[in-house]
Amino acid sequence: MIHPSSYMWIAPLVAMMVAQGLKPLYRMARLRTWDWRQVKNSGGMPSSHSAAVTALVVELWLRYGGSDPVLAIGIFVAGVVMYDAAGVRWQTGRQAAVLNRLLQDLRGQSAELNSSLHTGEATSDGVSSLNGIPSLQVVKSPWWLIDWPVLDEHVGHKPTEVVGGILVGIIVGLIIH
């Protein structure tokens, strides 16, 4: 016979899948647009990380009771995951937004610089000059502006999204148990 505790992974897995499945529904209700890509994205409402660790804590509580040290470990891990989702990962998303804007601005400045350089006249030695003054030769796209991907800005969670994940985790944990 299989030991009942060997099914401890079912509630967190189902909670994570339910939370990911709710993301496009939440987006549709809020923005009136359907986007299936939300199912695979991190970030957004509800937090699937929070749902998974909360469902695990609920399962631990119901299976072992409130005095078991394993529950304390589960609560600690859940707190770290939720702090990370709402703190560190949220800040990572904000930094990604700043970097995306910075690269966009730098690409625009590079294009403006290149177009202003090409209005100069070429001299006999091939150096461009404007009104007889030699100007710098800049490559069309500097190496540091080539092929940088647009960074994902939605990797973390707002506190309300973490609370949404907690609610999903509690409900799924209670239903699965």
Biggest sheet statistics: 3 strands, antiparallel
How large a portion of the residues is in β-strands, by DSSP E? Answer: under 5%
Number of helices: 4
Low-pLDDT segments, ≥5 res: 121-127
| Average predicted local confidence, pLDDT | 77
- Tell me, what's the shape? elongated
Question: Strand pairing plus helix content: what structural class?
Answer: mainly alpha
Helix content: 55-70%
In N-to-C order, the SSE pattern is HHHEEEH
Work out the number of β strands. Answer: 3
Major sheet: arrangement of strands? 1-2-3
Q: How far apart lie the N and C ends?
A: 18 Å
Alpha-carbon Rg, integer: 26 Å
Write the layout of secondary structure elements.
Elements: H1 10-31, H2 48-64, H3 69-117, E1 121-122, E2 128-130, E3 133-134, H4 159-176
Antiparallel strand pairs: 1-2, 2-3
